[in-house]
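#struct-help
A.M.: can someone run this one for me? Single chain, 454 residues.
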Amino acid sequence: MVKDTNTQSLQQGLGFKDVAIRPRASNYRMSEVKTTAQISKNIQLRRPIIGAPVPCISNEAMAIALAMSGGIGVVHRYQTPEAQAQTIKTIKDKVSSFIRPIQTILPGTSVLEAKDIIEKNSLPVLPVIDARSQFIKGIIQPQLIEQNADQSALVADIMISPATSKIKNGMSERHYREVFEQQGVAFMIVVDKSDRVMGLMTADDVLQADTTPVSSKDKNGRLMVGAAIGVDDEQRAKSIIEAGADAIFIESLNAHNKNVLKAVTSLRRMSGDYKFDVIVGNIATKDGARAVIDAGADAVVVGIGSCEQSTVLKGTGVGVPSISALMDVYAQCQLSQTPVIFGGVSHHGDVLSKAFAAGASGVMLGQVLAGCAESPADVKIHNNITYKLFQPVSRYYESGHIDYGESQYVQNEGSVKDLVEGVSHSIKRTLTLTGCLTLKDLAEQSEFIRISAN
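D.P.: on it. Structure tokens below:
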């Protein structure tokens, strides 16, 4: 059938540069507005910033820093399933700002050497571990050494049982608090499920901690982390599910595809006793949103050729401008209360606020995060200014990549914490200017004004 070009009606697409958010009367101060948002059906973030799953961004340090700052990182899939799973385990085990690293000694160590270690490091306790199994065997405290006159004796001769001085990792913060309050102890040795020493937890750290921290944690007080998989990635999916990922991101250039929908359904069947959300991208239309939600998605990622710089738009001519895509998808997702994430934000500023106003519950940052201190991106210094090289996935793999932009050096943004706090501050300003208390209010109540092309 020949397309009738005389009767074809062309839709108008609006991007971020085409609109401004209309200001409204407000009853709120910046200290009162909230940036907390539901980025998927079961995951709420106090600062809904998501790190794009790109090799030059989403390493262990970045994911930890994002979670500690109230966002979440997504560990990339351009590595072996085993390496990806190990990164997730490391992040989940990093639970607590409560846990401090601690030195250990062997039973055959002399009391004199143990005394020297304790004094040099101002330690309240030294765990004694078995040389072969690495299991905790006992503990040494300064008072035990003071009571022992024979400094040439071995630690094994004076150590005491660790039974009342150890606690399992992975418990909730409330549980740790209750243990210290009820037992009145000054410290606890944190051990894993095999009784290997992980670190030291002190009463001061636990009892004086903020009871409503900004960090993103699961119900057991462990840092939250996401992980990316491809369409035909069943073995990888199993590995990261077992590693404890809180969200699994199924990545595809166009998720409105029968193979992607099958992958979503298959992932749902694999869940079993594990709890995780399935987030699917990328899409740009109402029909795409409806399809992935019907398949079982807990959130959708929007962004196919959404801006002028898009490599997909430049290379294929396919895409939907950002504001139009977000508003269409948001309208569809509202029917099932499914959150919307805008993917691949290349820079912060008005773009983020406009994305939230158009219906996003979360934003995925790409090259902005590459400039942070925690990113593993290559560093270049020019005229005493530090830059980092942002390389999208297309530079690592020739096909099947998501559109995260073009390779370029980006200026050092400082720490993730500082960046996220700055973004949060900007979003709060937008909320107060538009009379909105929450990001949900912003999506539901804000109005856009078309900016003249002239």
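A.M.: thanks! The radius of gyration is 26 Å.
D.P.: also worth noting: The longest helix spans residues 416-433.
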